[in-house]
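Hey L., structure's done. Input below.
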Amino acid sequence: MTTENPLDNPRSRTATLIASPKGAAICRRLARRQLMDWELDSTHTEPFHCALLIVAELAANAITHGRLPGRGFEVHLSLTTCARRGATLRIEISDPRGDRLPVLPTVHTPNAQTGRGLTLVDALCHRWGTIPRHPNSKTVWAELDLVDAPDAPDAPAVPDAPDAP
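Output:
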């Protein structure tokens, strides 16, 4: 079951999802659709793909490590503009397990099948962290700065080959 809360700000989207693999899949689809509606897939392609990976990792962590019976998780996406920094995409995933805060691993076991998700998030975003939520839950957030690529310089003019006699 998905409950969406439309907000006054058209650059913001929040949805509450069931804490299951299906809920995580819906979260990924919802994020993809919202980012495409904001046209990040055509104007900021690298951050678009990074954001989708971050959403996937944080949603997977929420349903794996933050799950409580009968309680869902929440995804919140926002796109803000700041004159100093440009546009920033913020991804927030909240779950009901405030007692289990994520920790960036310092050592990776070479053949481990898990434990690299937060390392990926850390590598893909500009900032990330956690916020406690009342009464006993948490939000894990990640931000991507959307800086427009500088205009490519014009290609140098190549002189025409001289006419053959």
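The first helix runs from residue 21 to 37. Residues 110 and 116 are 11 Å apart (CA to CA).

-- N.
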